[in-house]
Every structure is written in structure tokens, then in C-alpha cells.
Amino acid sequence: MKKLILLLLLFGIFFATSIRAETVLYCQTELVTGFIKKNGVWKSANFHNERHTVKFNHDYSRLEGMTTKPMECTTSYSFFPERIFCVHTWGSHETFLFNKETNRFTFTKVSTAGYTLNDSDEDTDTDTFLAGTCKVF
């Protein structure tokens, strides 16, 4: 019986440690802009602010919640260790930049490429740029 209790206790400690290792953030955009085609003319457009709940793994190498699929992240520049750079794991051109000190982020979404393709559809949205601040959940 004591072995079972010890095993359950150790499992509980291991499980609790792995849960706390993730960083969950509530991110609110403050600026959202992009391009739109109206009446055959491309122009810049402002979009609605958005809220996102995102989750970094324990070493900030993976981000979930900003896009439909996880993003791979790196702190590739040793002289900016507070900056986390994330890109999609499946190659679409979406990027997320997060500063751990200021909790500010930018997100670029270049998935439709409507402007460069000169899409003939009216009211076609294209690339967007989001900027905002995150709070620890």
C-alpha cells in the first residue's frame, strides 16, 4: 500500500511539474491592418481587433493557439534573448514575434497573397499585420 501511495505521489509531482512548464498567455491586438480590394482598387484597410489565447511550451520552442497548426519558435539571436521568433510548421508565411520582457507581440499573416496575385474577386482580403500585448493567464 505504501508503494502505491509513493508511486501516486511521484506521478502527481511529475504531472504538476509538466503542467507548470507551459506558459499560457492572453493576447489582445491593438493594431490590425492589411490590404483590401474594393471597386477594383487596392487600398490599405483596418480590421477588427482580435483576442488570442496562446501557449508556449517549457522552452519557448513551440507555440500553439495563434494559428490552426503549431508554430516552431527560436531565440536565434543571442543579443536579443528576450525575443521569441515563431513560424508555421507547415510552411505558410505566418510569423509571430514575442518579447518576454515587454509582453508585446506582432503577427504577420501572408496566407492569401491576393495583392501579388492581383485577385480578380472584389472585396478580397490579403496579408494582415497584427500588433498587441499579452498577459499571463
What keywords describe this structure?
137 residues, alpha+beta, Porin, eight-stranded antiparallel β-barrel, 2 helices, 9 strands, elongated
Q: How do the helices and strands line up, and which of them pair or pack?
A:
Layout: H1 2-20, E1 23-38, E2 41-46, E3 51-56, E4 62-64, E5 71-74, E6 83-88, E7 93-99, E8 104-110, H2 114-117, E9 125-136
Antiparallel strand pairs: 1-2, 1-3, 1-9, 3-4, 4-5, 5-6, 6-7, 7-8, 8-9
> From the coordinates shown, what is the CATH architecture?
Beta Barrel
- Our Rg estimate from Cα atoms comes to 20 Å
The main sheet comes to: 8 strands, antiparallel, barrel
Supply the number of helical segments. 2
Percentage of residues in strands: over 45%
Which CATH class applies here?
Mainly Beta
Order of helices and strands: HEEEEEEEEHE
By CATH, the topology is: Porin
Q: Uncertain runs with pLDDT below 50, 5 residues or more?
A: none
User: Given the helix and strand composition, which structural class is it?
Assistant: alpha+beta
Shape: elongated
Percent helix range: 10-25%
Got a strand count?
9
The largest sheet has its strands arranged as: 1-3-4-5-6-7-8-9
Number of domains: 1
Mean pLDDT: 80
Termini distance?
A: 38 Å
Word description of this protein:
The protein is of the alpha+beta class and 137 residues long. It has a single domain (22-136), classed as Porin, CATH 2.40.160. 17% of the residues lie in helices and 49% in strands. The protein contains 2 helices and 9 strands. The protein has an 8-stranded antiparallel beta barrel with strand order 1-3-4-5-6-7-8-9. It is elongated and about 75 Å long. The mean pLDDT is 80.
